[in-house]
Automatic annotation (TrEMBL):
Enzyme Commission identifier(s): 2.7.13.3
GO MF term list: ATP binding; phosphorelay sensor kinase activity; protein dimerization activity
Keyword flag Magnesium: no
Residue span, DUF7134 domain: 41-184
Residues annotated as transmembrane: 46-64, 76-95, 102-127, 133-153, 160-181
Keywords, sorted A to Z: ATP-binding, Kinase, Membrane, Nucleotide-binding, Phosphoprotein, Transferase, Transmembrane, Transmembrane helix, Two-component regulatory system
Cellular component GO terms held in the UniProt record: membrane
Keyword match Zinc: no
UniProt domain Signal transduction histidine kinase subgroup 3 dimerisation and phosphoacceptor: residue ranges: 215-279
Enzyme class, first EC level, given as a word: transferase
Protein name: histidine kinase
Length: 418
């Protein structure tokens, strides 16, 4: 008659689901009720219900035999005892729908019917399994309290009064304790399943967050890498558009810069797309990984494009700068040069970098106001926002804004551990 449950995970197959109690299935799948909103009985439920009924009939039959052989009991009372016992055994089939009512009724019937003893035990077990402790304490306590009165009214012909009361109380306590144990196991199963569901949900959220962060990192990288190249294309194409009288040498030079920038932009884009297709999980694995030592090349590239850039490098050993700090500083300089080329064409830009281990690294990109009209160059306006986030993630801070002379300055302060 045990209603114990299998280990967590046993519900994973339809065949095993039929071996679980309906109350457990309702807890596992609360959105799949049976008819009339009640949980549908499983195969296990039917087996347990049949066993409960047979056990109550067996115990009732033994008690009825004892009552029939008692010469001190009138025949009319014997008939009433057995009739009430039959009704109590038949009522066992209602134990899942009406456990409280069944327990109360059988406890009261037990005062006049020994044949209902089996039904009483089944009812107490059922209420201990299916109802909270207050119900169990009230009805079980009432049953124990009525036990001495029962044996005063209907003494057992085979046992003295005190042993009869003690044995009945022990049997009642055992059945109730067993039912409470089954209930606790059932609640443990449901709590483990709920915990597993929460763990799966949290894992899915972590994966989603990691994917979102990876997409944001790739978007920042694409912006940093391609904005610099595409700005060169836009500036030189605009120069050709607004200077139709340029000499052949100037046109050839500008066309060469455009071709070279387009080629490098395609290479960078191909490299990033390759990372996406390969599905590498590193933060920036396989992507362009410039360091502070590459700052000289970035300035030289800008100069070749016709931009006036002054580099003030006060770092004794750029190779000693940590890779993450150097990469962040390089991106700040790249974005600063890109913005200066877009918003202050023709102005001389100063890139200053200084620092030492333990003191931190400071990189500044500043430019005066543009000397002439500024052609409109499209932009997303997200560059400085992305830079601020990048520098913050590196443990530093980014300061940017207009200068008193009408120019603009971007200053990044990055940590450099000693």
């Amino acid at each position: 008659m045990s209603e114990d449950e299998p280990r967590p995970g046993a519900w994973t197959t339809p065949g095993r689901r039929r071996l679980l109690p309906s109350a457990v299935l309702t807890g596992l799948d609360p959105d799949v009720p049976g008819r009339s909103g009640r949980p549908r009985r499983t195969v296990r439920d039917w087996i347990v219900d049949v066993l409960c009924f047979l056990l109550s009939v067996l115990i009732g039959a033994l008690a009825a035999d004892t009552v029939s052989g008692d010469p001190n009991t009138p025949d009319a009372l014997k008939a009433v005892d057995q009739a009430l016992g039959v009704l109590a055994c038949a009522a066992v089939w209602l134990r899942r729908r009406r456990p409280v009512e069944l327990a109360v009724a059988t406890t009261l019937v037990g005062l006049v019917s020994n044949t209902a003893s089996g039904a009483i035990l089944v009812a107490l077990f059922t209420i201990a399994v299916h109802r909270p402790f207050p119900y169990v304490a009230a009805i079980g306590g009432a049953s124990l309290a009525l036990t001495p009165l029962l044996f005063l009214l209907r003494p057992d012909p085979d046992l003295p009064y005190l042993p009869s009361v003690v044995l009945t109380a022990l049997l009642t306590g055992t059945v109730v304790g067993w039912g409470m144990f089954v209930r606790s196991r059932r609640q443990l199963l449901l709590s483990l399943r709920d915990r597993a569901r929460r763990a799966e949900t949290e894992a899915a959220l972590r994966v989603e967050r990691a994917q979102r962060l990876a997409r944001e990192a790739i978007a920042r990288e694409m912006h940093d890498v391609l904005a610099h190249r595409l700005t060169l294309l836009s500036v030189h194409a605009g120069a050709l558009e607004f200077r139709p009288d340029a000499s052949r040498e100037e046109v050839v030079r500008a066309a060469g810069v455009i071709r070279e920038s387009a080629h490098e932009a395609l290479e960078d884009l191909r490299e990033i797309i390759g990372v996406l297709r390969a599905g590498e999980s590193g933060d920036e694995a396989g992507r362009p990984q410039p360091t502070l030592a590459a700052l000289q090349g970035l300035v030289a590239e800008s100069r070749e494009a016709g931009m006036g850039v002054v580099l003030e490098d006060r770092v004794a050993d750029p190779g000693a700068v940590p890779a993450s700090v150097g990469r962040t500083a390089y991106r700040v300089a790249q974005e600063g040069l890109t913005n200066a080329r877009k918003h202050a064409p023709g102005a001389e830009v100063t890139v200053a970098v200084a620092g030492a281990p333990g003191d931190g690294l400071v990189l500044t990109v500043r430019n005066p106001p543009p000397p002439g009209p500024v052609p409109r160059v499209p932009g997303s306006g997200q560059g400085l926002i992305g830079l601020t986030e990048r520098v913050t993630l590196a443990g530093g801070r980014l300061i940017h804004g207009g200068r008193p002379d009408g120019g603009f300055e971007v200053r990044a302060e990055l940590p450099w551990e000693g």
